[in-house]
Amino acid sequence: MNTAPALSLRNIYKSFGGIVAVEDLSLDVKRGEIVALVGDNGAGKSTVVKIITGMYQPSSGEIRLAGEPVHFIDASQSQSKGVQVVYQDLALAESQPVYMNLFLGREKTKGWFGKLDRTGMIAETEELMRELNVRIPSPKSTIRKLSGGQRQAVAIARATHWATNLVLMDEPTAALGVTETSKAEDIISGLKARDLAILIVSHSLDQVFRLSDQICVLRRGKQIGVRQTKQTDKNEIVSMITGLHASSR
Fold first, then answer.
1. How far apart are CA 157 and CA 173, in angstroms?
2. Angle of CA points 229, 230, 231, to nearest 5°
């Protein structure tokens, strides 16, 4: 059994010309664990997500997935290694039904002529939605007819379905109301039971403390520290984010 972290970042450094975006970041995300990445705007959070997914390449440092060193040059390579992302804009095809969104770019086919296996995709979608306790009218429902929370749930379900190593979530509930946020958080929490590693970027410290096992704080591209969520509090995390009375423990 592979006991290596699902994701391991070592001494990640990224600069754009003379501007340093990320400086010496080291972080492990284990299976069955939610790690939150927090910091003010410009702290480097989105850059880290893009480095992990292959949209950016680190200037130096090492990325390992399940113990294996990886060098991604685009997002398709990270996806092939079991990394999936839930972006704030969800990246759903609004005119397509739920089941087609779940299999977007990976459609199931059957027979000699490659006919779409709609029955198989619908059945698989129903099973996944049931497992994740996602409530939608039907796998055949068109995305544009769903609520914001239902769309979010579909995006999370799609990432979960195809991830074998890591799910990245970039502000996954930013556009949702209180009730829909709560439902989405229930789904996210449930992913731990599927033995996935989850790295979540969130501006909401309330959400971070509800969901995460560890919190990694960035400030102006520098890693200020990593804390076990149960062993810290909002005051310490805020001080680390802002640099005011920051703890160096």
1. 14
2. 90
pTM comes to 0.90
Side chain identity at 170, as an amino acid letter? D
Q: What would the pLDDT profile of 208-224 be if each residue is shown by its tens digit?
A: 999 999 999 999 999 99
In 7-162, the DSSP E strands lie at 7-16, 19-29, 33-38, 60-65, 68-70, 83-86, 109-110, 115-116
Q: Residue 174: exposed, middle, or buried by beta-carbon count in 10 A (0-12, 13-18, 19+)? A: middle
For residue 111, the Cα-to-chain-centroid distance in whole angstroms is 35
Tell me which H or E stretch contains 207: helix 205-211
Residues with Cβ within 8 Å of 20's Cβ and at least 6 positions away in sequence, in order, are 13, 14, 221
Q: What is the pLDDT of residues 151-185, one digit of tens each?
A: 989 999 999 899 989 999 998 888 888 888 898 89
Q: What are residue 96's phi and psi, to 5 degrees?
A: -100, 155
The domains found in the chain, sorted by start residue, are 7-242 (3.40.50.300)
Q: Environment class of residue 221 by beta-carbon count within 10 Å: exposed (0-12), middle (13-18) or buried (19+)?
A: buried
Per DSSP, which regions of the chain are E strands? Answer: 7-16, 19-29, 33-38, 60-65, 68-70, 83-86, 109-110, 115-116, 166-170, 197-201, 214-219, 222-228
CA–CA separation, 27 and 208 (whole Å): 17
